[in-house]
Amino acid sequence: MSNLTSHSDPSLCWNCRGSLSEADLCTSCVKIQPIGPETDFFSILGIPVRLTLDTGILTERFHEKSRLFHPDYHRLEDTREQDISLNNASLLNQAFKTLKDPFDRALYFLDLTSRHHSPQGQRVVLPPSLLMEIMEFKETLEEQVDSGQSEKASKTLAARIRDVEAAILGRMESLDNLASVDKSGNEETKRSREDLTRDLEYRKYLKSLERDLKTRIQAVASRVG
Amino acid sequence: MSRTVVGIDLGTTNSLIAVMKESRIDVIPDSEGRRLLPSVVALSGDGVQVGFPARARLNDPDTVVVYSAKRLMGRSFVEISGELPYLAYPVEEVRGLPMIPDRLRSRHLSPPEIGALVLSELKKRAEIHLNAPVTDAVITVPAYFNDAQRQATKDAGEMAGLNVLRIVNEPTAAALAYGFGSGKDGLFAIYDLGGGTFDFSLLDIRKGIFEVRATSGDTHLGGDDFDQAIVSDWLSGISGGNDLSRRTEVRDFLRKEAEKAKIALTEAKEIRVSVPALGFETVLTRDRMNALVEPLVQRTLVPVARALDDAGVSVSDIDGVILVGGATRLLRVKEAVQGFFGKPVYDQVDPDLVVAEGAAVQGNILSGERKDLLLLDVTPLSLGIETMGNVMSPLIPRNTTIPTQSKEMFTTFQDGQTRVDIHVLQGERELAKDNRSLARFSMTEIDPMPAGAARVEVTFMIDANGILDVRAVDQRTGKSQGILVHPSYGLTREDVRALIKESFDHAKEDFETRLLIDAKTEAQTVLNATRRALDRLDDDILPAGERLEIRTQVTALENAMGGSDGRRVREETQKLDQVTRPLAERLMNLSVHEALSGKKVKGPGEKDA
Question: Which CATH architecture is the domain B496-596 placed in?
Fold first, then answer.
């Protein structure tokens, strides 16, 4: 893998040194080309950088590229090609996994398109009032579980998660619309991005609450049983 | 040019080898037409035997008969201690690993070495059948095998002289064997209940791409447990059953009876079982057996639910269920699966052969012969590292499509620190100690500098076999970092290399032995014929000078046969052949002549009338 990063000129084929007309494959010597460390997930899958996308097309692209890169199709080639194949396929799998899930995709998109892009992602802090609300919500649910109303608690939480997810999906669509009319940077875009970031973080809290509640329900059930 | 890549099902009880040629799958039989090879190795004074002859020695008190070695693969001695009561052969702890002592040859054999003996036998079988050397292979493992178990299986292959191109999951292989991908797209469940393990996988099949959505299982649930449940029920009905149950041979005997009864009940409604030695007689009905195995059948549905949850699909999304493994022959299992999924059940391919057949298909893909099919498998367990407070911090969650990688930045926390240790774990538990320790890596050669200044990027790569590879790069220099690997439950790379060399040495030894035996057999045939000729032919056909020359060479060959040099035996045999050739030609001419003139001459091998 180390020799992949030292790849000198990405516009030339690593093997025949011919110039590349497409990124994945050299058309003259038919060798797959290494995906560079800076290549984003959207480019790996060959789709535009957008928040909303057709998962059918995404899956199709993933399968197409898998047929090109997967190590099973390069098993009898030399070490260098096997290395490229392994590295490309693992990046492709990561890219697909991230973009397939709308919420992971939104987080990735926000980070990729932010001015302070970092591979570790952005740190988000929820406003204190929202944090307080979550704490109270949590206590209410836990009391319900402890008093034998597990089903009610689960339903309440599921409804809340559904609501925030619907809001997130709506925000993703409107941000895409804003991007198509204006090239970003204006106040409305900035505000929309902040709202989306906050909702995604809020959802993360609710999802972790869901996991904790499940454990609590199981514990209560086993005490009763 | 494409190469032949064989597919091997290295099973707990039986193993098979298959090959795909011109869209036909062949499970290769031995010279007697048997396709299964018992995964059994016998260590006795006569040598090392594999397969049927080894299994035949199970009750020989002077022979160590090793079976179910797959249960020991890639595991520590502590981990397998629970298996020991079920194994009738000695297992000793050597450097924390389970090893089988072979006192006659003063050595210990590791589970991968036992596996290698079985694999060599299969390799030989394929080479005879194909009349060509076989080196490239695909070997299957339970989907739930962890990194160490996969690596151990790969090691076994290498020790057997195989180039293991791919470790593939058994349930996925089974799906390949069913020839899906040609029009039958959809979401399929693979329910694989073998002798000792249960594997479950969810597979999305679309235009030849087999994408595993989730996999789960239970490493201690299988047909053997069904037998044990029946045995326990019987013992509870015998007076003194409690004492009897502690005697391994009684349990073993009853277990065989239970297995027979279980198989018979797929046809019959009830079966009479009688064991006069124990004064035990009973009738087992199908209903009673179903009731006994029911809790076990229900237990299989737990991992099923987990996989469905992981994949985020419900039962109604599934288009069909593929049954794999001998224990799915049980009618109650089929019923339960059908009842739970309410979808068509695929059980047409022999569940004993289906995995090997699928491995052959995967071999065909790797040989470059077909590009229409592609398997996208997942890692069955989460991979993580131990962090502060002895907790596991996950890097790659379970059911991630492989190959995959995760990059992490590491630094030093003390001034002048030159080494960083990383403990890699596999499992789903919070605390590090509750997960499987895979290996400890030490990054050495870090330049001394203030705490936190070093920046080493470590890449954890899981390849298409589900096997981990770790590489580190110093971010400041861009140079790759030295890494020392200490596998937790396995052989080090050095061990494997030494064992591979040893197995080649043994192979040479084995070759010499076979050469000697073959040469002696041939020499004996020639000697017998020559002696008869010397005894029976007159001087007019065999003059005294020639007779003496032949006698001298007979003695030389007899001397050579007293030794152990096969090549010398062969040389002396050839010399004898040469000195008797003029005689043989004369006899031939004479016999032709006599035949034409209607008379008959006494041949060297004929008795006087």
Answer: Up-down Bundle (1.20)
Task: Output the CA–CA distances (angstroms, integers) from residue A27 to A20, A39, A62, in the order listed.
Answer: 7, 20, 21
Question: Is B9 an annotated catalytic residue?
Answer: yes
Size of interface A-B (CB pairs under 8 A): 71
Task: Please state, rounded to an integer, the average pLDDT across all residues of chain B.
Answer: 86
Residue B600 pLDDT more than 70?
A: no
Percent of chain B with pLDDT over 70: 88
Q: Is the dihedral of CA B127, B143, B84, B332 positive or negative?
A: negative
Closest Cα to residue B134, out of B2, B6, B1?
A: B6
Mean pLDDT score, A13-33: 83
Q: Does domain A2-100 have CATH number 2.60.120.260?
A: no
> What is the ipTM score, two decimals?
0.86
Cα separation values, B305 from B219, B308, B312, Å: 16, 5, 10
Sequence-distant contacts of A40-46: CB under 8 A, at least 24 apart: A40/A112, A41/A94, A41/A95, A41/A98, A41/A99, A41/A108, A41/A112, A42/A95, A42/A99, A42/A112, A44/A91, A44/A92, A44/A95, A45/A92, A45/A95, A45/A96, A45/A99
Domain boundaries, chain B: 1-178+351-371, 181-348, 383-491, 496-596
- Contact of B419 with B446, CB cutoff 8 Å: yes
Q: Which residue has the tokens 């009750």?
A: B59
Q: What pLDDT, on a 0 to 100 scale, did the predictor assign at position B503?
A: 60
Q: How confident is the model at residue B530 (pLDDT cuts 50, 70, 90)?
A: confident
**Residue B3: predicted pLDDT:** 80
Contact by Cβ (8 Å): A89, A71 = yes
DSSP codes, B164-221 = EEEEEEHHHHHHHHTTTTSS--EEEEEEEE-SS-EEEEEEEEETTEEEEEEEEEETT-
Among B113, B121, B155, B192, the one annotated catalytic? B192
Structure confidence by residue, pLDDT tens digits, B284-339: 999 999 999 999 999 999 999 999 999 999 999 999 999 998 899 999 999 999 99
The position carrying tokens 């499940």 is A214
Q: What is the CA radius of gyration of chain B?
A: 31
Domain boundaries, chain A: 2-100, 128-224
- B508 pLDDT band, cuts 50/70/90, is low
Q: Global pTM?
A: 0.80
Reply yes or no on whether the pLDDT at B603 is more than 60: no
What is the least distance, in Å, from the CA of A93 to any CA of chain B? Answer: 6
pLDDT at A5: 45
Please answer yes or no on whether B366 and A72 come within 8 Å at the CB atom: yes
The mean pLDDT value for B597-607 works out to: 49
The two counts, helices (H) then strands (E), for chain A are 8, 0
Q: What is the 8-class DSSP label of residue B278?
A: G
How far is CA B533 from each of CA A33, A130, B5, B522, B525, rounded to the nearest angstrom? 75, 109, 51, 17, 13
Q: Do B403 and A86 count as a contact with CB atoms less than 8 A apart? A: yes
Class of domain B383-491: mainly beta
The pair of structure tokens assigned to A19 is 């110039």
Q: Given B26, B113, B121, B170, which residue is catalytic?
A: B170
